User: Which sequence fits this backbone?
């Protein structure tokens, strides 16, 4: 029991991420950067952050090499091997940690070895590995952006903390020049090497709507989100189409400039093997632009159903897309565009961190 108010400012915080730092920023990257801007000293630990420059003086990027075969060891031996990993990391950090915040069920699961005041596990997707129970057992608090994910985990302190959006999405966007001369422009931002990206559906849309320009931003092979150079899909035929433009990877700071040029923004994820459709962090980034979003239905979108267009199933996306293009002015009134931006603005990462503080104080008390 304590009367002290715990604030995420002036603290030493370790973030454990399966994805390294790079052009493609996910929620864990934005959380780390927001914490650094709030005067915390943050260490972002990942197996593949080599050679990347930190974007903020309070943010330290650490790459480490996991012990080979550690996850195949029995629990006691795995803990002992992890203790050696943690010892090496703490020698690098040289600070007593206040918070250890893990997004990774596959590495450094024994969070209590860091001897931090608070340990957090924050899955943003469903993970199908028995290793996850190790990190759950080592955590004081569980966060997730989806109720479905939380329901799979047994823990007395678990909370739904939705995605946030970086503040720079609301700053003045620089003008970018897009290739092609299409009056209607459709954008997609994300990892184009994600196995759940519905490549066949995307191909169908671009072939059916030759009068519409389609603009893709994101990696197709090697990136900070994946270690493979091999593309998940064969883009050869798609790249030959005159209405398709792959703009490559772009920094998060440049994304708002591209979103501002679009009329429609797509989310095209298949459900995972449990039937769960990912609650994408790009939704709020899209909403910050005020543009129309077309997405497969997701229970997590209930609060914003009036701001977006949802298809009950992926195979209904073409019909929804056709209707949107025929009636675009109806979905782009000044009022609804402003409502989208206003909703996203209320969920900036600074506000999300305040919500996290409230949960931490509740748990500590």
Assistant:
């Amino acid at each position: 029991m304590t009367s002290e108010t715990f604030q995420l400012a002036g603290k030493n915080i370790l973030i454990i991420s399966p994805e390294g730092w790079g052009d493609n920023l996910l929620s864990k990257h934005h959380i780390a950067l927001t914490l650094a801007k709030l005067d915390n000293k943050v260490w972002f630990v990942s197996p593949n952050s080599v050679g990347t420059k930190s974007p903020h003086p309070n943010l330290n990027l650490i790459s480490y090499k996991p012990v080979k075969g550690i996850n195949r060891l029995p629990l006691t031996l795995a803990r002992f091997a992890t203790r050696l990993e943690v010892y090496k990391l703490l020698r690098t950090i040289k600070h007593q940690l206040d918070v250890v915040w893990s997004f990774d069920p596959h590495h450094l699961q024994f969070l209590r070895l860091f001897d931090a005041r608070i340990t957090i596990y924050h899955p943003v997707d469903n993970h199908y590995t028995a290793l996850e129970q190790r990190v759950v057992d080592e955590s004081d608090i569980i966060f997730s952006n989806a109720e479905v994910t939380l329901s799979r985990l047994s823990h007395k302190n678990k909370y739904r903390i939705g995605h946030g959006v970086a503040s720079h999405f609301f700053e003045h966007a620089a003008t970018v020049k897009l290739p092609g001369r299409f009056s209607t422009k459709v954008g997609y931002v994300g990892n184009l090497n994600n196995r759940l990206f519905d490549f066949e559906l995307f191909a169908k849309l671009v072939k059916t709507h030759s009068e519409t320009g389609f603009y893709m931003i994101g990696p197709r092979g090697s990136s900070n989100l994946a270690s493979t150079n091999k593309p998940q899909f064969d883009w050869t035929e798609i790249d030959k189409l005159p209405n398709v433009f792959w703009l490559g990877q772009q920094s998060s700071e440049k994304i708002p400039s591209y979103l501002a040029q679009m009329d429609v923004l797509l989310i095209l994820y298949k459900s995972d093997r449990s039937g769960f459709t990912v609650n994408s962090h790009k939704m709020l980034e899209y909403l910050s632009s005020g543009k129309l979003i077309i997405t497969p239905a997701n229970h997590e979108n209930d609060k914003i159903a009036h701001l977006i267009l949802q298809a009950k199933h992926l195979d209904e996306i073409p019909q929804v897309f056709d209707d949107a293009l025929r009636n675009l002015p109806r979905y782009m009134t000044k009022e609804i565009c402003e409502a989208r931006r206003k909703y996203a603005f209320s969920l900036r990462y600074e506000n999300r961190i305040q919500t996290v503080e409230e949960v931490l104080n509740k748990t500590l008390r």
